[in-house]
Amino acid sequence: MQDRRQIDEILLRRTGGSCVVGGTDHIGGILLQKETGTRFGFVPYRGGAPVLQDLAAGQIDMAMLDPTTSLAQVRAGLVKAYAVTAATRLSSAPEIPTFDEAGLPGFRASQWHGLWVPKGTPKDIIAKLNAAAVAALADAGLRARLADLGQEIFPRDQQTPDALRALPRPSLASAIARVRVR
Question: Lower CB density within 10 Å: C or N end of the chain?
């Protein structure tokens, strides 16, 4: 199991890659600095793949990336995963501890994917799209492929438009307030 000293050692290095300024990885990195009292520079990139390439090549010292982008390279031994930012370990990578287990309790910077439509889309269209998405996510083959990529699928009762609308406000607003992003 990892411990806080290993996390601090990485954070004392100088550069971290960031896919999108103001995105989950960037805000998560700022939160990580605040929580640990460290400072490191962010190198902006145009996506996760270039960040991962430079991380594997040693051009940057760390990055906070989603498992879809990084899990294959972690499994191949090209990069090391120190911790996941979710409350629980990934079912597809149970060997990677949470930040709680790594000595930074309560640190969260997770992201998720949703299906969005323009404001004013008729409710019957939204219901049809939701039913199709729920049916697709119930497919065992698709679930297995998404799990291999490190994607956690929300339980069926959370696969609704109302549940989706409820997700971003508390966590994103809290993170932005904590890092004072304007």
Answer: C
H helix and E strand count, the chain: 8, 3
Q: Is 137 exposed, middle or buried (0-12, 13-18, 19+ CB in 10 A)?
A: middle
Domain boundaries 4-112+171-179, corresponding CATH code = 3.40.190.10
Tell me the pTM: 0.70
pLDDT in tens, 157-182: 989 998 888 875 545 556 556 656 55
Which tokens hold the place of 74? 């972690």
DSSP structure class, residue 102: T
Q: What order do you get walking across the sheet with 15-18 strand by strand?
A: 41-44, 15-18, 62-63
User: CA torsion angle for 46, 47, 51, 52 (degrees, to 10)?
Assistant: -150
